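A quick aside before the break. I want you to see a complete sequence-to-structure record at least once, exactly as it would be stored in a machine-readable document. Don't worry about memorizing anything.
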Amino acid sequence: MNKDDMIRELATKKRNITRQKALEAIEYLDRHGKPINFNSVAKISGLSKTTLYNSKELREKIESYRNEATPIAVKTRKKVELSEASSKAIIESLKRKNKALQEENKRLKEQLEVAYKGYYDNQ
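That is the input. The structure line, written in tokens, reads:
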């Protein structure tokens, strides 16, 4: 095997590794219901956006997912509607938590006041 053949073989291996990284990132994003676009695939795969754009296969695959993003937006809207339906419960829970924290804050201030009083009385 001569030098040129070795270079070609290494380039092919590198292309295959790059392709595999991008496909695994796309699969991961799809499996977790996350948006699939050039930014997200680049971030997950560790590849540059330029690399993704320059590969015709990867570019077409990412663009096809990106063009199918509308159903995800519909799913997100449903989640928002569901969270609005339960917002009263969330608000009440936060009010209770806020009240408990206010009471704890008041108690701690009183303890601090007693501690300071004892400190200054001893001096």
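Two observations worth writing down. The chain has a mean pLDDT of 84. The chain is about 85% helix and 0% strand. We'll return to this after the break.
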